[in-house]
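Why does residue order matter? Because the sequence determines the fold. Keep that principle in mind as you read this record.
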Amino acid sequence: MSLSFPVRSNPFRFLLYTEWGLVATCAVANSLMPILFFQTPNLSIPSFLILLVFGLMGLILPYGKTIYKILYTIIEVGLILFGAAFGYLQLWSLLLIVVVIRSSFLFDLSERYLLAGLVFFLFLALQIQSISSITLSLSPLEQGNFWLNQLTHTLLFGMGLLFLLHLVNTVMSERQIQEQLAIAHKQLQQYVVQVEDLAVVQERNHTAHNIHDSLGHALAVMNIQLQTALRYWQVDLEQAYHYIVESKRLGSFAMQEVRRSVNTLRVDVPRERSLQMAIMFLVREFHHSTGILPTTQLSLAFVLPREISKILYLLIQEGLTNIYKHAEATAVHIQVSAIPEQVYLTIEDNGRGFQLEQQPIGFGLQEMQQRVALLKGKFQIESELGSGCCLTVRLPLSEFPANIPLELAPVPSRKNHSLQKSFV
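Structure:
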């Protein structure tokens, strides 16, 4: 059975360099301290080995089981106690600070404070041991000054230890927040992709449903008409001709449905087109399919965000599709205007209308209504039997990058006068 000791590198290089700076300071102190006492400078082999091992331990940090972390800390403290007890280390208090720094990568917040308290009591014990023999040779006045200096030294060490612990904890917290933000950002990107895929699937299902209801029905009826025409071919040519003409009409209708379905699958505004060009393309297709040329009023003084342009394109596409299939209209008006705060869309027809309470909106408009709600916009349909239908959408632009308008477009009223005149 093999015993593995999982380790990792220090995630903060500047803290590792700080640790090495404190270890180097301790080494310089061991070499130059004898000069103060008029002795020959010397860095002994034991002190060199202690500092070398202590410094190299900063390159690897244990993780996983708590026993590994405790063992790692015990080895650090053991090296300090050994060097301080036998006089190999002069500024051993600097190494205690390194122990507190490394504890931030090993233990939880409460365990870090516990270890910092133990380090402080260890400092007191080593300090008392190192000065116990010095106070015996001092006069009462000198002893008072000496103990005052030691008390100041102890308080400064404790405050510095607490400040250092808070500083390292702050750095660690910021690092964790950055990692969490990176993970959240990655998850958000994945969610955006999933939502887009789901929207594409829903739109394809909607198109498939329309093809089944309109194109499939038209082809089935056309097939029946042709079969009936074949039966009458040898019996009644006039009746057979009638069924063939009806089949031709259904074939033309089927071709229009195919063209409309293909255009519906183009769910995005082409990048090489402006929104105005895309809207005019929909208007021409609608005119080609129905013979009705919608009037348009486009007041777009600046380029809209792509998300807004896409949903406006889809709304106009879905609105024209519903008018084509259900409204029996003879006139259609489309108006798009934008100001820096919001963009406004209205699609109005003079068709037969419907009662919203008795006939809820279809799947396509429901999906559009959900998309508008996601963009914190307002979606409204006004319709009455015999009075046509008006679709109104307002989308805010405050959450998108600001645009510099060339001119401000006025918000239109509920009814457009030019469209009312065309109804008469």
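The chain has eleven helices and seven strands.
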